[in-house]
Design goal:
212 residues, mainly alpha
Length: 212
């Protein structure tokens, strides 16, 4: 394995049993690529994709200790949101959406719902994807007016079939998930759910290649 690969990446490759990273395609531009080149690349992608859930969880942990002025840090808000959803009887896919709904805070400070929605899109229903993608606007109902903004921005979607679902998520599993004294479940309780969800993509243009 090349010495230029970071220790963290080397550890991931070891875990995924990707033993020979020296194999490379031979083209200098995609127009020169052969079927053999792309079979090789697809093979590496299949192995790398097995670690997606681990990478998502590692990125979620970046929210630990990031309070941003809130009563609890962003990781524990995410855990509390997922805990509330789980204890409310929501299914596993919904609970993982609750867990990851703010994962975009680190890289998408101005559009964090879009980041979370993009990560989840290949793995969740259209309803859950829409809910995550739009939760920022719906959540604004609870605080936008304090910032001189329109708290009713969500009303532009009042005729959308997922309006009530998203409003309910924000009411029951998001805006009320900032309690330092709540008995929040640990991340370890949700890790198997994340692993199961990210093991079975359902919406991707690359599915055929990966299955092959």
């Amino acid at each position: 394995m090349s010495s230029c690969i970071s220790p963290a990446l080397a550890l991931l490759f070891k875990k995924l049993k990707v033993t020979d990273m020296s194999e490379k395609a031979t083209f200098k531009s995609m127009t020169e690529g052969s079927a053999e080149d792309w079979a090789l690349i697809a093979g590496h992608a299949k192995d790398f994709n097995k670690g997606l859930a681990d990478r998502v969880l590692a990125h979620l942990k970046l929210l630990d200790g990031d309070f941003g002025g809130f009563p609890i840090d962003r990781l524990h808000h995410s855990l509390q949101s997922a805990t509330l959803a789980h204890r409310d009887g929501e299914d596993e896919e919904y609970v993982v959406c609750a867990l990851l709904h703010d994962i975009g805070d680190t890289l998408g400070s101005y559009n964090h719902p879009d980041i979370a929605a993009a990560i989840l899109k290949p793995f969740v229903s259209e309803a859950n994807h829409w809910m995550v993608q739009h939760h920022g606007i719906f959540q604004g109902y609870y605080f936008f007016h304090h910032l001189g903004m329109d708290r009713d921005l969500r009303d532009q979607f009042k005729d959308h079939p997922h309006f009530e679902r998203t409003a309910r998520f924000c009411e029951r599993h998001d805006q009320n998930a900032f309690d330092p004294d709540y008995d929040t479940m640990p991340l370890e309780a949700f890790e198997p759910m994340v692993q199961r969800l990210f093991a079975k993509p359902r919406n991707s243009i690359y599915l055929k290649a990966m299955d092959g």
